[in-house]
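Appendix B, record 7
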Amino acid sequence: MASYIAPVVLVLVFVVIVPLPLVANAQSYRNLTTGSAIMAGDPSTNLLSSSGEFAFGFQTMGSSGFLLAVWFAKISEQTVIWSANGDSLVPKGSKLRLTDDNRLSLDNPSGGEKTVAEQPGSKFAYASMLNTGNLVVMSPLGDVVWETFDHPTDTMLPTQKLGMGSQLVARYSQTNYSDGRFMLAMQGDGNLVLYTLAYPLNSINKAYWATNSVGSGLELVFNQSGQVYLTTSNGTIEIQSNNFSTDGFYQRAVLDSHGIFSQYVYPKSTIPGWSNNWSKVSEPVPPNICTSIAQDVGSGVCGFNSYCTIGDDQSPRCDCPSGYVWLDPDDTVKGCKQDFQPQSCNKTNPEGDKFTFKEMINIDWPLSDYEKYNGQTENWCRQDCLSDCFCAVAIYRDSTCWKKKVPLSNGRTNIAMNGKALVKVRIGDSPFGFGENKQKNKIPLHVVIVGSVLSGGSVCLNLLLVIVTLLTCRRLRSKKADSEQQPVPIEEAGGLRHFKYHEIQEATNGFKEELGRGAFGTVYKGFVTSFLGHGGHVVAVKVLHRLTEKGDIEFKREMRAISQTNHKNLVKLLGYCNDDQHRILIYEYMSNSCLANLLFEDSRPNWYKRIDIAEGVARGLSYLHEECSRHIIHCDIKPQNVLLDDGMVAKISDFGLAKLLVADQTRTLTDVRGTKGYVAPEWFRNMPISAKVDVYSFGIMLLELICCRKNYEPETEDEPEMILANWVWDCYHEGNLDPLVEDDDEALGDKRRVERLVRTALWCIQEDPSLRPTMKKVTLMLEGAVSVPVPPEPCSFLSSV
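Structure tokens (predicted):
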């Protein structure tokens, strides 16, 4: 078998390690003359600059066709500087010719023709690729009669100028080179302006940034020193600048597909094969694209019904609000749609009781309102939106309620807003329903094979094939189970960045700012820079106390657990360090600390936010238990291990005690794990534990969320209230839940939901694990999608829910 594998491995290694520059340099420097052509599908006909750093010809766009373009030829990433046919890719066999009638003509084998360049009154002798990245067409006398620098698409290079009346137009997306939705115009009146366009037309819609240099601006210049500036009659206006020379770095200034004008550099000495080495080296223009654009007509930065958020690298990201999904996951600019049946406007069936709200902090669609009410409470705002079939979102801020209907436009995250969006969704509809591929029941491969065999052929042959198939499947399952029980090496944690210890020291400023301390390690605040030290993001750095055998096991367990997960309600692991005796994990930073700090202090989250947090944690646990590739029992759910991000979204953290289950395993034997007060009873009975231990811990935490107090308060004067679970049961059994939320006006006005959440919590903390619902069902209970029956007393053993 090895003799068949080895040649394949050699081929793959060759493909990975041979750098693209060697392929490009296999071509020779030449000019395009009359009678010669550049052929789509034949890289040897492309034009190279004499330095080999730039190329002109056809770039393959996967199965979509070929793009006639200029690009950087010595770097591994496909970085196009200029293109001619982004809106109409051509098939293999198309060619670019320098014609006898003085044109650069793009000819399609099917007979189509497009003029790429012409200059009336001038003669074309040849086309040449210069070392500046400029494609020029020369006259017989050696004069430049046409050049790409005078006809830019979305990019400028050093030595290039943008004169009055010229513009850059952003491409539609990273992979679609047709004209997009934004323009940078050097206007004839001297003003340099960024505009939104009325896509798919190139007509101007609205300005969102300008130099206000009317009457004095002359041209936009990108010089060899890396400065981009506007020359004026009174001097210059700096737009962007960097400190990198053109000798050691490739440089470009780009109007990207989101409407931001930025400068990037790429080191010429980079080892071939590295990726993402284009590093942003200047402040983006405008600084915050999300809040810069507010237009009466059009969707804004992102598509309709979506919203824009600025990331740590100052780039925008488009997201769908809760309950909405992408119209086209491959084209997020198209926006989002509701993933549920909209509310009926039928008077006899208003459906208000079939909807609820997903709360989103500091998110707004500022130009979509149709009603505004001053001096109202949040609960009034919610009820009014529920009773209005047109209302899709309510914005509540400073005792004011705005109602909005779809399509929502100009969506953005804005911390300065100091308010919230209440997104109306149908109860019981999965927020990931219509628009995404749902998991369907798959027919096992061996069943398909057996069925196919039995549909034809002799009986004996069929029987023999069935036996062989079943034995093979049994052997494969055995091998799979064996392999899944093997420890996952740290180095196999996909997509994680490995940090050297000195990098961690630098990132944390010598482990200066401590965020928290736990049984196994201490967490510090750090700042990780991107390549070349420009930009970056704040991180949380978890350092294990000491390298004991137990600590090393904890480190590997956490790595293996969280590296296999991907869910919005789980803290994201960004990287790790395992140099020498150091075991360190690097997580995304949660600016609002942990739930315990927020829940048990004076500035408690309001009732509706506590509901959102409970639902978020429930969804995260449901994912761990049933949806991720290796089912995971967290084993330590408590408010200290629930972190909150900028938008107050709850994220489960600290997988140090987690237990991974092998395929088809639902129970496991292990030593006691967890935190006193949240540990399920079966831990102490030497029983196999299951995901139901997390359900128990969640139930205790849910009671804390409802009542805004700790599960055990020994200093309480009233002894029955000392243990929260006992007190809640007593209140529920007596039919009076008001004492649980007595200081919470919003909760007191939402008594039906208070009872539903209390019932759900009491089911979760049943002593018998078989009585506890799954986290998937708990999620449905919290959302009101299923009814919650009367729970038995937590210590009893009654019929299962």
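Remarks on this record: The longest strand covers residues 521-529. Confidence is low (pLDDT under 50) at residues 1-26, 430-461, 476-494, 796-801.
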